[in-house]
Amino acid sequence: MPNRAPLPPALPAFRMHRVAAACALVALHVGAAAQAPADAGRLPTVTVTAERRTENLQDVPSSVTTLSPEMIDVLNTGGQDVRMLSARVPSLNIESSFGRAFPRFYIRGYGNTDFRLNASQPVSLVYDEVVQENPILKGFPAFDLDRIEVLRGPQGTLFGRNTPAGVVKFESVRPSLKKVEGYGSLSVGTFKTVNAEGAVNFPTGPSTALRVSVLNQTRDDWVENTFDDGPTQDLEGYRDSALRAQYLWQPHQDFSALFNLHARDYAGSARLFRANIIVKGTNDLVPGFDESKVSYDGKNESELQNYGASLRLRWGLGSVALHSITGYEQVRTYSRGDIDGGFGNTFAPPSGPGVIPFSSETADGMPAHRQVTQEFRLESTDSGPLGWQAGLYLFHEDYKIESFSYDSPNGSAQDGYQRVRQKNDAVALFGALNYALTPELKLRAGGRYTRDTKKFSVEAYENTGFVPCTLLGKCTLAQLAAQEPDGDLSAAPKDSKFNWDLSGTYTVTPGTNLYARVATGFRGSSVQGAGAFNGKSVAGPETNTSFEAGVKTDLLDGRARVNFGVFHYTVKDLQVTAVGGSSNANILLNVDKAVGQGFELDAQALLTDRLMVGLGVGYNDTKIKDPGLAVAVCGDGIAAPVRNCTVTDPQPTAGTALIDGNPLPQAPRTTLSFMLKYTQPIGDGELYVLTDWTYRSKINFFLYESVEFTGKPLTEGGLRLGYVWGNGKYEVALFGRNITNQIRVVGGIDFNNLTGFINEPRTWGAQFRASF
């Protein structure tokens, strides 16, 4: 039975985290110059590229929210990963059952809970104009960014397939030809957390510049394994290092070339699953629950390495401009965890905590991966009433996934292995028109035709564990194929789709715009390979049609800004993953349709010259509509008829529940963010107090509803006290994250026992930052 091959070193010539820490510390000792301030007494203008061109956020006819570099810095100093963005903007939720790797994004309640490494998501992450398709790529750290944009609603015309819920865009700070500049930041905190971050910009000639950005986040293990014989005794520590180097060549205004090299090296703990932490009949944590302790007889580890490069070219050709964006991504990863969340089982006592029906220790890895993308785009540059853009997009991805299982009570001996391969190719033609019908009324329309193909195959399979085909001692690839009705373990879905959008903006008064938009999007077919407990499953493409309308306005002579919009969407043939249940299944399904409706509110205001407030509210009412669809529900083991949770849905047969009318999984009805900052001049500097809060309402972990697997509302608050001096050059701050230490179950495992995983506890820390 094949064993896992170790991942190669992150960077052969040196360890990336050492370079990251060293560069950040060097930057702390370099002289500084202040950033240009905004107009006194007015909110700064926010520019975005939501429509693939730079424009004022207030002129974009769709629901868009941005996060500023200041807020990104506030969040990064605590050593958090990309999940820190959850609920930071209206209607955004992010969760993960893999820890710092493999974040899953949800916009307006619409996402995908599938945990397989070949899963696609309806929310796309675009980093520096290159799509990060594989879910592992979506966890690349957020540092030295100019802004983060969250585009809600289908983005199928300009961003393509797998964007029916929206897009999250990261835009790095670009190299500058003007001067040497940069910053360095060092923070330390609870659990010996260290966040070292920095960037240096070097003009290397009159037409060239280099910008190097680094990040190194570390944390000591703070969770103790109380099972003395467990192979992993201390957990939840990590080292997450990232590097980005950009080189700009701009010999004249009609040509520019931007090269981007980036890499990530991560090693730490996989997600900690905790057995029997929920009180049956409630969604409360068990009395005496201690987040700093687990009892594992299995191994826990996680590592990944990500390398990538891109080349962005722009030619000015008179009244048009030609863009070429070439991207390459490669990622390797391996994550192993004690999924049952305890030690032993009913067949191999002693066991605990609580009843462990059977052991589950598994791992998933991606030993080979390659993604190549190419886009050519022409856009008009005239200042007349008509504007347009058109392009060609090519996508290729090829990767292998390995899955392992282990016998925890037997020294974690490997007893299962599977290797699958998936190839994905897509080609698209797209175009968009903007037309100013009058100075007040501007219309936009776009279309995109996409051809998407996948080829999936199972290359190897062997299992000697407790699975149906091991009655003779071993399950082989041939036996696995024999379980399939057609004897075929491969699949090759092909999808073609035309997406379109139509929108308009009407200027009521200077500073106040009304907008409306109707748009469509789609997600390509997905494949779930055959395994020990279920056969191959294929879900066909899903499509989304969305309507939204709203108002964007600047008030009080630019001291306040309020954006408000309402929406309604319908997803047909929604792809969902039915996981767990008594049979421990993992099956892809198409739901007839799902609907969502609600509103979003973004508001910022300078109440005084020293007091600034920000508020974001998202309301999302989602429902599954498929009267005849039933899925498996929680079980106490493979053959146990007793449920370990209290199912509240109708149950047509034992072990199943009808899900019609249920909300989408991981879809909070309400998200709320609040920020308040007060500043006070002192000496030659400025003292400030900043507090930020996020709230999301209760969530449903699975497709069916049960009392136990309903996550309680979660409120997390941050507090920061800082002093800025030297004309903005230097800053020192004390900070706290999740200051009320609210601990909630945020996800669960339903096939074995009342197993769940939790949010991060309270942390405190201090930061020093210098700019130059």
Summary of the model, kept short:
The protein has 772 residues and is mainly beta. Helix content is 3%, strand content 55%. It has a single domain, classed as Maltoporin, Chain A, CATH 2.40.170.20.
Provide tags for this entry:
3% helix; 772 residues; mainly beta; 22-stranded antiparallel beta barrel; 55% strand
Architecture overview:
The protein is mainly beta and 772 residues long. The chain has a single domain, classed as Beta Barrel (Maltoporin, Chain A), CATH 2.40.170. The protein contains three helices and 45 strands. The strands form ten sheets. The chain has a 22-stranded antiparallel beta barrel. Strands 3-8-9-6-7 form a five-stranded mixed beta sheet. The protein is globular.
